[in-house]
Amino acid sequence: MSNGEQKFEVTGFQAGGMAAGIKEDGRKDLALLYSEVPAKAAGIFTTNVFKAAPVLLDMERIKSGTTRAVIVNSGNANAATGDEGYQDAVKMARFCAGALQIDEAQVLVASTGVIGRKLPIDKVAGNVSKLVKGLSPGGIPEAAQAIMTTDRYPKIQYREGPVGGSDICVCGIAKGAGMIEPGMATLLAFVLTDADVDDQAMKRALREAADQSFNAISVDGCMSTNDTVLLLANGLAGNRRIRTSTRDFAVFTGMLADVMTELAKSIVRDGEGATKLIEIVVEGAKSAGDAKTVAYQIARSNLVKTAFYGGDPNWGRIISAAGAAGVALDPSAVDLTFDGVPLFRQGQGIAGHLQELVEIMKKDHIRVVVKLGQGTKSFRVFSSDLTLDYVKINAHYTT
Amino acid sequence: MSNGEQKFEVTGFQAGGMAAGIKEDGRKDLALLYSEVPAKAAGIFTTNVFKAAPVLLDMERIKSGTTRAVIVNSGNANAATGDEGYQDAVKMARFCAGALQIDEAQVLVASTGVIGRKLPIDKVAGNVSKLVKGLSPGGIPEAAQAIMTTDRYPKIQYREGPVGGSDICVCGIAKGAGMIEPGMATLLAFVLTDADVDDQAMKRALREAADQSFNAISVDGCMSTNDTVLLLANGLAGNRRIRTSTRDFAVFTGMLADVMTELAKSIVRDGEGATKLIEIVVEGAKSAGDAKTVAYQIARSNLVKTAFYGGDPNWGRIISAAGAAGVALDPSAVDLTFDGVPLFRQGQGIAGHLQELVEIMKKDHIRVVVKLGQGTKSFRVFSSDLTLDYVKINAHYTT
């Protein structure tokens, strides 16, 4: 995703990543994001009731609304580790705060990797000084590498533009819903901006952008114990403070949504074993909720996902999934297209486009549009295909 | 499932099955179940909004509460076929009624197979006389064969016992949730009994038995356009009429549930590519709804299903699925066992049983018990593993 000419820097932020020996294969596994001044912070966390220790800690700490640093390890999720795990998360933040000489309450923590095993906290303790020494304004791509688990490539996105009288920038990194050993689909994403944003606008912009991006992807419908999305805004761009219900807010949220949507798409593309990005758009619904329900029912269907893997333009599986969503539909009003080519209309399949469809099914990004013919609401979800590699990767892990 | 000594006959019923050329490979594809006297009938049909033509027809006809015959074809689902398809379903019943010399309104119809293609109604017309001529009291196993699509074996179950002063018998046949080309997980089941059952007891017994059996299995969470379960009772056993809220009702419903549960289990075992039956029992829930929600969330998880395929005792995937079900749980109260061996308790994994677990994971029926520690309600669901063969079978169909 990165290239030599693109700069991934945000005024006032430093970052870094290193190999601390938490992963056994020697890859980078410890990342740090640091704001030179206190940054506003907002977060979205997994709704799984089995929340990992760092999630529980962050949910408390984010209430203050300000943060100086986020320390992240990969290779161990520090989940299902009980009280000892929680104390390890506290220690991880404390060691980091000590090395940075900041208040430990201003440090957030995230972990991803194997669950149910004690975090090797000594490896964090022994390496955090080196991690801090390695911080630099250009270190965000290194951090993106250090949070990877089974991801095939780092995920980083950058946007800049004028908001409130200044140029602001937004840079985000993420790691994948790549069915992490031993089986968590952990999503971690950290978005840094130099914009000046008020407290309410922070929360709302993050929520709106997440609903269009990380909350609109499906790799296998599993939600991890560790999912965490954090937004840090240090205000150094000098823009007019962004408040809700303003044009500035809309522009800022759009930039945020753009960064997060591209990250989300790269996560789907990098889903374990995935070979195709399937964009499912449900239009003409009575409510956004109906549109989302139908879209996810299609996105999660193993029959739909295997059909795309096999290159089969199998409209029957899609309409059957739509029909099973629990939303009252009129079959004769439903219309289905793949990349604009019609497959189903007025309760019947449409013949005569097989060759076009065979070509479309070979593409690595296919847009499926289902029109319900009931109203004006829509929802889009990004899904992936279900492949032999998905089963191989996830079946043959040994505890 | 059948064996030479077991008799599959129900007083007053005749059945048969033949190859009518609807399937291209020459296998049996047309089945008939016939009651010598008018039989009480109750049915449960797919809730998919895209209902196949025969489902729409049966939902109307079953309102009368009596039936003489059910004609079933495999190889073509007569789904997404519009008005013409509905007329074909009507014709299929009419031809059958003509050959049997009964009222066409007393004939029900079911279809399973490829969707979106016109039913070759001429093949029904040309063979129905022969089908009727082949009827016999011992023909139920032939009918079980003729309703198969990708099923590896026919599914038939028989129970008999004393109810209301007479010996009654219950015999059921089913075809699988085996992800039928081009992708419908069609479940068809037909249960015949010689018991005398009143109208209300018919409906309620079928519903209760289905909730424990066909509504408690998950192969891949897909619901077909054609799912149909019919109960026919001709009353020839001469028992005291079975009415709700009686001991007779409980015994009858138990027999029905027993037949239908064994059929359901054989459908899961025969799920496409499945190698293992995974019995997921959620206990200690506040409500039956909570228990069912958690059980299905686990049963449907691709990560759980691939772990069982791979033989990995991966408790993390199970607790994560349970935690994502949207039911408020106390992680420290949750307890997980595989065949009685503990894996997770009080918020943490339990070490020390790896060798036992490795042996359990090799079995072809594994019982997973999740205790929520919140109440007294429970739910059981039968699931299967997700295998390389599942993906191969479902990816490489070509339209």
Task: List descriptors.
homodimer, 399 residues, alpha+beta, L-amino peptidase D-ALA esterase/amidase, Ubiquitin-like (UB roll), 2 domains, eight-stranded mixed β-sheet, seven-stranded mixed β-sheet, 11 helices
Helix-and-strand structural type of chain A: alpha+beta
User: DSSP strand (E) fraction of chain A?
Assistant: 25-35%
How many independent structural domains of chain A? 2
Mean pLDDT of chain A: 91
Oligomer: homodimer
User: What does the radius of gyration of chain A come to?
Assistant: 22 Å
CATH architecture of the largest domain in chain A: 4-Layer Sandwich
- CATH topology name of the largest domain in chain A, in short, is L-amino peptidase D-ALA esterase/amidase
CATH superfamily grouping of the largest domain in chain A = L-amino peptidase D-ALA esterase/amidase
Number of helices of chain A: 11
From the N-terminal CA to the C-terminal CA of chain A, the straight-line distance is 32 Å
Major sheet summary line of chain A: 8 strands, mixed
Q: Which CATH class of the largest domain in chain A applies here?
A: Alpha Beta
Task: Please describe what this structure looks like.
2 copies of one chain form a homodimer. The first copy, chain A, is an alpha+beta fold. Chain A folds into 2 domains: 257 residues, L-amino peptidase D-ALA esterase/amidase, CATH 3.60.70; 119 residues, ArgJ beta chain, C-terminal domain (Ubiquitin-like (UB roll)). Chain A is 33% helix and 27% strand. In chain A, a hairpin with a 2-residue loop joins strand 11 and strand 12. Chain A is globular and about 70 Å long. The two termini of chain A are 32 Å apart. About 1% of the residues of chain A have low confidence. Chains A and B meet through helix 8, helix 9, strand 13 and helix 11 of A and helix 8, helix 9, strand 13 and helix 11 of B.
